[in-house]
Amino acid sequence: MAPTAAVVNDRPDFLVTAEVPKSLQSIFIRDEDERPKVAYNQFSKDIPVISLSGITGEERGRVRDEVSKACSEWGIFQVLDHGVPQELVDSMTQLSRAFFALPAEEKLRYDMRGGKRGGFVVSSHLQGEAVLDWREICIYFSYPLHQRDYTRWPVKPDGWREIVENYSESLMGLACKLLGIISEALGLETEAVTKACVEMDQKVVINFYPKCPEPDMTLGLKRHTDPGTITLLLQDQVGGLQATKDNGKNWITVEPIQGAFVVNLGDHMHYLSNGKFKTADHQAVVNSNSSRLSIATFQNPAQESIVYPLDGVVKEAESDKCFMEEPITFAQMYSRKMSRDIELARQKKLAKLAEKEQSEISKIN
Fold first, then answer.
1. 8 A C-beta contact, residue 245 and residue 73
2. Is 122:136 a contact under the CB 8 Å cutoff?
């Protein structure tokens, strides 16, 4: 008999079942202004695609210029010829899919609700969500090495833990390579951004978006910007990642490219650049035809690192002004961002309830 989604406080323990449900629970239904405007497979070629071939040689100037343009216009681009072995990418993808196909009880051995650091959960590990995202996720906190907690790393499917270790190491190398180019694109020394991070933190989040009965009513991942430095996203060929560069007026679906990584700039990078480089404004949509898998590797600075425009970025001779009043730590920046997001969601919910109450009063009168 197929399992049904068990609910605790309206949050399902899992989404993957033998049969796709016929309708969404109300906890997944988004307000109309938050629902998808563009189809998951209506692909756009607007996002720059950059080859990293020759990055250590004579092509470095070309790569730097292309990255600078992409960061200024979008805060998001795709990279090819990045040096991550395709065999490793294939293994990571295959084993990730195999994990989400495991019985619910096996995945729930790593249930990360209640503040556990890493593991499995529906929607998000963040607290205070007013509406849930249509996804299952598995999170690995992989760097710094001394903070790894292997008790939170699933042992099934066989071999996945070792592949994750190799994958996270390879992605750390790619991230440092890209941060060097981004530093140079700002006119700074190659190590400027990595030095500002103090000690690089890495979190690998595997997203699984099951088939959805009402994809036009929900999101796989709500609209947001990442708080960290950069995010490297591996996505399958289904499609669903969407981006906007005009504050949500127009959305595009990022075209999946075989072998490419999508690079998203985060808030931290936006601040380090004094706003010259955009933070990637994005979301994920779902569909009723097929499931989708993506693997996001978040590269964040140390909690104690200082968030402030880098020396040399603010060009006073060009009438530049620093757009931050004072330096803060990344921990402070992250806490403020989360509190702000939760408060905005709370206010929106209250406004919705007030509107509903007023409507009912009008009917009575």
1. yes
2. yes
Rounded to whole angstroms, the Cα distance separating 276 from 322 reads 11
Q: Which helix (H) or strand (E) holds 142?
A: strand 136-143
Check residue 127 and give its pLDDT: 61
- 340 three-class SS: helix
279-292 pLDDT tens trace: 999 999 999 999 99
For 170-221, the pLDDT digits (tens) are 999 999 999 999 999 999 999 999 999 999 999 999 999 999 999 999 999 9
* Class of residue 60 by CB neighbours under 10 A (exposed 0-12, middle 13-18, buried 19+): middle
Q: What angle do CA 253, 74, 242 make, to 5 degrees?
A: 20
pLDDT for 39 beyond 70: yes
Return the structure tokens found at 166.
Answer: 């190799």
Give the CA distances from residue 37 to residues 210, 221, 248, in Å, rounded to whole numbers and listed in that order. 20, 14, 10
